[in-house]
Fold this sequence. Notes:
The complex is a heterodimer. By secondary structure, chain A is mainly alpha-helical. Chain A has eleven helices and four strands. Chain A has a two-stranded antiparallel ribbon with strand order 1-2. In chain A, strands 3-4 form a two-stranded antiparallel sheet. In chain A, helix 6 packs across helix 9 (170-179) and helix 7 (126-139) packs across helix 8. By secondary structure, chain B is an all-alpha fold. Helix content of chain B is 20%, strand content 0%. Chain B has one helix and no strands. The longest helix of chain B has 5 residues, at 7-11. The termini of chain B are far apart.
Amino acid sequence: MGCFCSKHSRQTPGYEEPTILASETSFTVSEVEALYELFKKLSSSIIDDGLIHKEEFQFALFRNSNKRNLFADRIFDLFDVKRNGVIEFGEFVRSLSVFHPNTPQSDKIAFAFRLYDLRYTGYIEREELKEMVLALLNESDLILSDDVVETIVDKTFIDADSKGDGKIDMEEWKEFVARNPSLMKNMTLPYLKDITLAFPSFVVNSEVED
Amino acid sequence: KPAAMNAFELISTSQGLNLSSLFEK
């Protein structure tokens, strides 16, 4: 007789036990189980191998698997902790946990810094900031002249680079975010608190009680 | 209005940073 809730279906590469993931993140065991339902959906949308490929990530964000976007690339790269070109379940849960409403603001601020430190130098440099502004303009309907872009980047740099050495370090970033808290808005997904409601099928599949 | 924003505010409006799309059915 078949059993649809068997562990067999969960032997996908990179699968990690929800109890362990819950102990290391802001999620409860039930929430990790619900995230597995979301993960299964995302990781089977193009290639059904239990791993999220970049095309699948892009498809989930834009409903278009070919849409290139600097920021989606950055998020994917940070989620792909092992740097093997795919997001495994454990990586997915640990990275999404940064966006949980209960996660300390300091973790969110550090993640955002890494996101914007395009060349992994430990600093956000002016050139990187300009590159990101241009990428944003490229993906939106906004048209700004190069002079206006230069002014925006200059003003931001003067404001953020309090030491005046031409680059923004983590300490300056923390101070800048404290003065501009709206910058952290997209680092919290209220949805993650309701994830068990969004993916209730985990209740059928759940192997662990919270 | 965008010209008055700081660069990071502008960047944070990117669709690529809006992960709530991942949860859309």
